[in-house]
Design brief:
Order of helices and strands: HHEEE
Distance between the termini: 82 Å
Strand order of the largest sheet: 1-2-3
Number of helices: 2
Number of domains: 2
Structural class: alpha+beta
Length: about 120
């Protein structure tokens, strides 16, 4: 069986170009995925922390997630992880709107509008 080199002429230039295009497309997809899943960190300002503390002190006195119907405290409110509060941060063009919602449904606005 003989092999004639003249019969086999791969187009390496076209192949290399296709590979570069595939790599570029994959890089774009990776960058888009990274941006989509980028981690963001939000912090409560001192005013917001103080507002939350005051609200929680009052709210916990009557919260259905803290007390049984017979008036005894629930031993592990929110389950093993204790996640009874949801923090909501909404970036706007002029400042950050900040809310906290208890799993019982009550919500408070912590936003420091004076800082806007």
């Amino acid at each position: 069986m003989s092999h004639n080199p003249k019969e086999f002429k791969p187009d390496l230039t076209a192949f290399a170009k296709r590979m570069q295009e595939q790599y570029a497309e994959n890089d774009k997809k990776r960058a888009a995925a990274a941006e989509l899943f980028e981690t963001r960190t939000f912090l409560l300002e001192p005013f917001e922390q103080q507002t939350l503390s005051v609200w929680l002190a009052e709210h916990n006195k009557t919260c259905s997630m803290r007390w049984n119907e017979d008036g005894t405290p629930i031993q592990f409110p929110g389950g093993a992880a204790g996640g009874t509060l949801t923090y909501k941060f909404t970036p706007t063009g002029i400042g950050m709107a900040t809310y906290v919602e208890c799993s019982c449904g009550e919500e408070t606005n912590l936003t420091d509008y004076d800082a806007w």
